Amino acid sequence: MTQTGINGAPTKSPPKLPTWLGLLLADKFATAAVIFLSLVVVAALIGPALLDGVASKVAFRGRNLAPFQLDHGWLMILGSDSLGRPIFARIIVAAQNTMMIAAFTVVAASCIGAALGLVAGYSRKFLSDAILRLADVIMSFPSLLLAVIVLYMLEPAVTNLVIVLAITRIPVYLRTTRAEVLEIRERMFVQAAKVMGASSWRIAFVHILPMVLPTLLTIATLDFAFVMLAESSLSFLGIGIQPPEVTWGLMVAQGRPYMNQAWWLSFWPGLFIVLTAMSLNLVSNWLRIVLDPTQRWRLEKRRETNHG
Amino acid sequence: MGRFVLKRSLFSLVSLFGLLVLVFFLSRLTGDPAALYLPVDAPQSVRDAFREARGLNEPLLSQFGDYLVNLAQFDFGDSLRRQRPAFDVVMEAFPWTLGLAGLTMALVLSGAVVLGALAAIKVGGVFDRISSVISLAAASAPDFWLALMAIFIFAVGLGWVPTSGTGTPWHWILPVAVLFVRPFGLVLQVVRSSMITALSSAYVKTARAKGVKQRAITFVHALRNAMLPVITVAGDQAAGLLNGAVVVESVFGFPGVGKLMIDSILQRDFTVVLAAIMVTSLAIFTMNLLIDLAYALLDPRIRY
What we know:
Chain A is mainly alpha-helical. Chain A has helices spanning 19-25, 28-55, 87-121, 125-140, 143-153, 158-184, 188-195, 200-237, 248-255, 264-290, 297-307; strands at 3-4, 10-11.
């Protein structure tokens, strides 16, 4: 028996692969992006434990070694920095701080932002207005000043950098969630829940939140890349992470004075930032299609032709 | 219309005042200027004299009161570091940033409208692919890294343009080129999706049925209606540039507001920070107001 899909094409037998994996493989760019991101995550998880000694070993006789030479061992494949430390090893070690800051920031900002957005969208006018004005203030407050204030009062450590970045990102989630809630709260199933006597809390978190989650997930992926770039900028300006801690952005900054003699000092960490951000953008695009039932058939169709 | 402008201005004045209060008190948390401007071994009496001369010994609330009284007479106070009126310092930097932002946004808008419209005419075509690659690159490249690489390749390696500073038109090329990337990618995406919607609408079908040429349909009928969301996003991006392209201005040694802002924050030059924030906020407010008025001009259904 054949059913008729949204696009009018008959949908065939159930897929052999698990749905998500199949949909991922249908998009080659997204597959490549996920593979690259997995490698970065693995590097972030086990890199420091594995390579910390090598990555911080100073060797003045091997300063600014050019890349693509294997005579000093494979860790020197991307060259060495101004203190003779292997750049490849340092990039792997720095992946941990870079990823950790971005991940914690996105999780914190999205949870707080979504919760506030839900309340703003599903409460009386006064509370809703107050929350929105708060978002306006955060958006207009210069984020650099905020960074200097927080990092001066507290220590310039990973957690405090997360606080700064998370505060500046809250409005994005707040506004998106609120806009979605305003639309969803008028739908029939919300009215039905209300008639059944569900409390406002229950409606907001049990009925509305799951409807907003796909959008939030897509934005969070995109925002992960943005936060990573923002953190690199702060570290580049010298008000982010401080040595001996290291992130990719700080590595670019540290290579800046040597740009004329040794371009690879700044080039490689920057390239890793670009590749990671690009992968996140590709995954976000893929998620947007997969999570949208009216677009999903594009990937499903491509998959069917792939399997022939 | 007049009432709308008045109401908006009043609202903005209130939020500007809120921002002023926040920045005034919070910026004091970055530390004591005396610790930064005097030698480490300066005796306590010298420190006290330094603080006394600049009114820093008064209670914070009365300092704020004095600041407001002076502000009402259009006096932003003197810069701690430069010993000159803070407002003059900011107004020297502001035209540079305004020029940078204006030039960049003009290029962004004209480029994005043409490429975005071409991409929308044939979804999946050559221009569509080019624009999706550009948007992806724009969303992924950190500007400080782009700036460094651009200096290395075009200024140091090829010697086409100067590395940094100002003086000739050549000095503007690299900063504008680097600032161009991100807004261009974002605006391009909005132009494309907005044009796709406009091109599938009923009035475009009518125009086509009447035999209007494709070019006129795209750039006259559809474009005008597709411009509203484009202007909104372009406005957000322009606001970001007006706030000072801190990183790009620092890397290229461009004497704009962004560089002034970060320098003043780090030097605890509170008066300059406040004056800079006031001036840029006012500029951004004016721009947003003009954008809202442009809505009404573009779309006769919108009336204030």
